[in-house]
Structure formats: C-alpha cells, structure tokens
From TrEMBL:
Keyword Ribonucleoprotein: no
Major localization listed first in the record, in broad terms: cytoplasm
Superkingdom in the source lineage: Bacteria
Ranges where the Ribosome maturation factor RimP C-terminal domain occurs: 86-158
Pfam families hit by this protein: DUF150_C, RimP_N
Localization terms from the record: Cytoplasm
Protein name as catalogued: Ribosome maturation factor RimP
Keywords from the named record: Cytoplasm, Ribosome biogenesis
Length: 159
C-alpha cells in the first residue's frame, strides 16, 4: 500500500463519522525529510484546533507504524485555502451564495453567484459583461454540468 493510501486509511477514524472529509492528500518523499500535506474540510468548515487534534493523532500513528521506515517527516493538516480550487461536490454546497469563477473544459470562464448545486450540475447567475441598463431584463441562471468543469474557485469579495 502506498503512503497516500495508508494516510487516508489512518485518517478515517478521525473524520467523526463523516463530519470531516478529505479534500486532498499530498506526499512529497525526500531523502532527508518527507512531507505529508492533508487538506480536510466539513460542511461548516474546520477550525485550526480541530486540525491540530487530528494532526497529533495521525502523526503519532505514522511514527508508530514507521511509515517512512524511521525517517523524519513533516505532517501538515489544514483546511483548503480560499484560493484552492473546489475538488469535491460537497465543497460546492457550503459555498452556495458566494461568487465563483468556473473554468470550463473548452477554456471559457464563467463568473457569477453560485445559486445551487445538484447531482449533475451547478447553477450560477452570471455577472454581466457590461453594466446593465435600468430596463435590461435580469440574467437567467446558467446550469453548468460537472462534466464540463475543469476548475472552480471561490472569489473573495471585500464589499
């Protein structure tokens, strides 16, 4: 079993029966010090303290099992940053109502407010390219199938 799969297996008991979920696990082997980065999230977010508890427990297990054959390693457990792309459908749900940028497989970029998430698609209300005039009709929501999405990123707004 490779290290990434082993880390994922060891994490499962600490996910509080599905409250937290694994977004990504990255393993960077090295001759001097390997690095493991674990990105966790939940439907309501995850705190630094929650990450620290999971990190301590996981780190202790990795040391006990000598996953890196006694070599030193660094373990980072955190939530994905706001600039990290959305990877799982579950991440879209907690971002309904926020601004999103969607890069489609054909290279088009769609920006707008994430209105809803379905089994097969997301729905956004796009930001108009030019400022609408007083009598312009509102833009209709646009459905974007997950199969058409190459990358989605939540847009930070300081308004």
């Amino acid at each position: 079993m490779d290290v990434k799969a082993k880390v994922n297996e060891l994490l499962q008991p600490y996910l509080n029966e599905g409250q937290y979920f694994v977004v990504d696990i990255q393993v960077s082997p090295s001759r001097t010090r390997a690095k493991i980065t674990v990105l966790l999230d939940s439907d309501t977010g995850i705190t630094i303290d929650e990450c620290a508890v999971i990190s301590r427990k996981l780190g202790n297990q990795l040391e006990e099992l000598e996953v890196f054959d006694g070599q030193a390693f660094t373990l980072e457990v955190s939530s994905p940053g706001i600039d990290e792309p959305l990877v799982l459908k579950r991440q879209y749900f907690k971002n309904v109502g926020r601004q999103i940028e969607v890069l489609l497989n054909d290279g088009q970029i769609r920006k707008g407010k994430l209105e809803s998430v379905g089994d097969e698609q997301i729905v956004i209300t796009e930001i108009p390219i030019k400022k609408p005039k007083k009598n312009d009709p509102p833009l209709d929501p646009t459905a974007i199938p997950f199969t058409d999405i190459k990358k989605s990123t939540i847009q930070v707004s300081f308004k």
